[in-house]
Amino acid sequence: MQVTICDVGPRDGLQNEPDVLAPAVRAELCERLAAAGVPRIEAVSFVRDDRVPQMAGAEEVVEALARRDGTVYAGLVLNELGYDRLATAGLEEAHLTLGATESFNRRNANQSVEESLAACERIVGRAHADGRRATVTISVAFGCPFEGAVDPGRVAEIAGRVGAADEVVLADTIGVAVPSQVKALVGRTGAAGVHLHDTRGTAVASALAALDAGATVLDASVGGLGGCPFAPRSTGNVATEDLVYLLHGEGIETGIDLDALIGVARWTEGVLGRPLPGRVYRAGV
């Protein structure tokens, strides 16, 4: 079985940090992940600097990247203006996101869910016309910090309406899902992947459940960095090295050099000046 790991650390991981890292440092993080064999990296988001100052200078990050065979760099966009910036920067893949609830989507994108669905449809069409892949992530697919539990039927409806995308990814933005829920919703929606936060320690088990249901794409963040500035009490993503350790132990191929990945987590710890939530980079293999 082949699984594609997408490291979202340079984007989702850093966007909740109190310090703003220079574009050159963020580009170096991307390149270190690529050198470790990570096949897909969410490098930047093209959003307003005043909304997410940690992501300022996205174009500078992209310009500083040294492209290498076997690595795809993606950028997050919330609207067509963001896609314009991504296309001008020349990234290979567009990642779009919308919330499964009105409350979260209003706070994250300043739009209704219907408005975001319409924007996704237009951007996916533009990306395909440009020869670019497009992934749509449905945030708060399992629980919302403002509305509580989310109806799986609503998530399935949204997933069906963004089916023109190359991939649909289900996000447990606040880390409330358990494996049975993840397995059921991936099976119901046919989602290609999941984006799991480890707020309550269930992310690794839920990732395996997603694979059992047919998912082949797993988002993760080096060192367990992460959180969402628009989701109170949301903590980091599942650590990439923790997930890779488990997958390799289970005989599932990722193409990633785990020792090199642990080195990236330790480097990131040094850059940020504090221990990170990940376990394997501290324990070793």
Descriptive tags:
about 280 residues, alpha/beta, TIM Barrel, 8-stranded parallel beta barrel, two-stranded antiparallel ribbon, 12 helices, 10 strands, about 40% helix, about 15% strand, globular
Provide the fold topology.
Blueprint: E1 4-7, H1 9-13, H2 23-35, E2 40-45, H3 58-64, E3 72-77, H4 80-89, E4 93-99, H5 102-109, H6 113-129, E5 133-139, E6 143-144, E7 148-149, H7 152-161, E8 167-172, H8 179-189, E9 193-196, H9 203-212, E10 217-220, H10 240-249, H11 258-272, H12 280-283
Parallel strand pairs: 1-2, 1-10, 2-3, 3-4, 4-5, 5-8, 8-9, 9-10
Antiparallel strand pairs: 6-7
Can I get a quick summary?
The protein has 285 residues and is an alpha/beta fold. It has twelve helices and ten strands.
